Amino acid sequence: MKNVFRKIFRVLRRSCEIYEMLFYWLLRRKPQRGSSRIVVIQNSHLGDFVLSLPFFTRLKEFCNGDLVLVSDSRIEEVARSSGLFAEFVGLDMKRASGYRHLLYRVKVLWQLRAITAGKVVQCFGVGATNFEDCMALSIRADERYAFVGSRYNVQRSGLLYDALKCNVYSHTLPYRMELSLVANENNYANFITGGEQTVSVGDLECFEPLPERDACLGDYCLIIPGADDPRRRWEAEKFACLARQVVAIHHNLISFSSALLRSRK
Question: Taking a C-beta distance cutoff of 8 angstroms, is the pair 42, 48 a contact?
């Protein structure tokens, strides 16, 4: 009986999500030409954010504009210390992602209508909801890019959503996060804090429409286990905490280059 109610609730929720997206799609405004800002929307925790930093670096280089991050307010300190973002818009993502706090959700989406940008880049992760779609619709932008993963595709499907998605995003592209562990905890710490030991690096897939990888150095990052597996997220969280320690203890500016993820003064 419990499973029956869960299925009914799931169907009702998906219907609500579709009609909510349709509502904000009808309210969308004409883009304001000439803006060079790139708004990046990422509904994730600290670990996923750190894993995405090499991607943000390449995005900034390709678009040649100021990045504005819309994400959970708890990652603001690390986001600002990265030096990649000109602005940060902090929200209570967990609260806004559900319908339990509907008034807060509506308030946030309405406030985002004041933001204008040349491009909106949507990074979907595990547990993504239609809230990210509604945020992308609320922001006034010339182009909207969606980078989606396999889990996202499983959660949202159907003819109505597919038809609506074509009118929301100008580009929908794959976003692979199938990463595996190549360095242990000690190597993390030594590498990030400038120790003698080195850390293995792994290839990070190049996403269109971003430029090809550097022919000399390649596009590399530290590989963290199972970013697609919620049970392994603590590894990414641990890595993020180590990066924060560099800022707090050594007063270093964290630099995420296109070659290696490293810290420098």
Answer: yes
Fold topology of 2-174: Rossmann fold (3.40.50)
Q: Is the peptide bond before 209 cis (omega within 30 degrees of 0)?
A: yes
Quickly tell me which residue has 């690390």 as its tokens. 78
CA 167 to chain centre: 21
**What are the φ and ψ backbone dihedral angles of 40, each rounded to 5 degrees?**
-105, 125
CATH 3.40.50.720 in the chain, residue ranges? 2-174
Q: How far is CA 253 from the centre of its chain?
A: 21
Dist. CA 255–CA 157, nearest whole Å? 38
Please, what is the Cα angle at 206 between 199 and 195, to 5 degrees?
15
Residue 262's nearest CA partner among 183, 177, 186, 198 is: 198
Token look-up 């504009």 returns 65
Per-residue pLDDT of the chain (265 residues; tens, 9 = 90+): 778 877 787 778 777 878 888 888 888 877 777 678 889 888 766 556 665 666 777 778 777 888 999 988 877 877 787 788 999 998 888 888 778 888 999 999 999 998 888 888 887 644 456 788 888 889 988 888 877 654 444 456 666 777 777 777 887 776 544 332 333 344 444 444 455 443 333 333 323 333 333 322 223 333 343 444 444 444 545 555 555 554 454 444 433 333 333 333 3
Q: Which helix (H) or strand (E) holds 20?
A: helix 2-26
Indicate the pTM of the whole model.
0.64
Pair 204, 54: CB distance under 8 Å:
yes
DSSP secondary-structure letter at 214?
P
